[in-house]
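Quick question: what would this complex look like in 3D?
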Amino acid sequence: MTKEEIPRKAIYRLSIYHRCLQALEENSIETVSSKALARAAGVKPTQLRKDLAYFGQLGTRGLGYNVNTLAEFIGDALGRTKLQPVILVGAGNLGTALLRYRGFNKEGFEIIAAFDRNESKWGKKASGVEIHAFHEIKKFVEENGVRMVILTVPVEEAQGVANDLVRAGIQAILNFSPTVLQVPDGVVVNSVDLALELENLSYFAR
Amino acid sequence: MTKEEIPRKAIYRLSIYHRCLQALEENSIETVSSKALARAAGVKPTQLRKDLAYFGQLGTRGLGYNVNTLAEFIGDALGRTKLQPVILVGAGNLGTALLRYRGFNKEGFEIIAAFDRNESKWGKKASGVEIHAFHEIKKFVEENGVRMVILTVPVEEAQGVANDLVRAGIQAILNFSPTVLQVPDGVVVNSVDLALELENLSYFAR
DNA sequence: TTCTGTGAAAACCTTCACAGCT
DNA sequence: AGCTGTGAAGGTTTTCACAGAA
């Protein structure tokens, strides 16, 4: 069972299961069946079992899954045990809104710094996060072992900035610009394209 | 070639192609090969051709595709010809940031109103969009023929509000809460889960 | 020759059916 | 009995290989 043979989509769903398990933990529920957990996660029970089976036998037949054990196991499998430092590049509208958003911390990610090209922002803080000069990124990334970036710059700048980030040693980019970033192998990009999601919705809503 | 047999993912990619074509149009490029367009969209040429082939013969063999014609065709296929009214529910951090974000308009969507539970916000405007009382949604939706919602309320409220929206006749929800919404058949949900995207990235970044 | 269109093959992912613990 | 684990079947999406038009 190596990392390679687990479907991409299964990994994605694992995060969802993890969330649902956290909710169950908060309600002091100790055991859950694949049926109940699958329902909460919006998938079919067999799929949930299959996904978990990639990692071994995690449940107890006739009983179900232990909530705590399973939550911890998935957390480990996702490499989510320790806090991951993240930087944000582009402290505009969306960027500062994301700095204010507390959802990341709760899930184990900390935005430790922001970067912007606009000199007037340098040294200032937004939601407790200091905004640095853009050209300091490379040094900062190296010194702090940063691997992940949230990219919220205007479309026109996105590819150029992405190139700089790759050069600085960044391995993963969460891209909010409505463009397809070209990056070398070994660098991962997930794009959140708001207009595209709307467009997609409008197609399927009749 | 009915709507039903075209892969979901192909529809999604169509939006990407559309974007790339718009960029080409702005640069006054008249013709593009599947190879070039696929590269820009981050897919393989064969996949692009297959996707387009679902809709008929759109290119010219030996030559490529006409940028204008193809852009217009895809726009039509996506039902993107006329402006779609959208409302935003939950005028908090993320909500107001999205109101400020101009990317929607450019792609043919207009946020015509915002709604919030917080009475102190009622009647105020954020980025030119008026914030209404939450209980006015149903009436507003009916009167304005609104089918789509951007949902940016806190997690705890998300499912409850979604239920209200469905009752008000909403057909599509772009959900930003980190939870899986349960909705009846006929209602479409696309979720943008920021922490989940980060988690996913962190797994694939080594 | 160049580049699209497309049936067939391959890869991938989901679901089924039931074996196997508790 | 109740519920998980899993090989096999089924379905969907991607890629290949090449036919066909400009």
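Answer marked as accepted. The first helix of chain B runs from residue 8 to 26.
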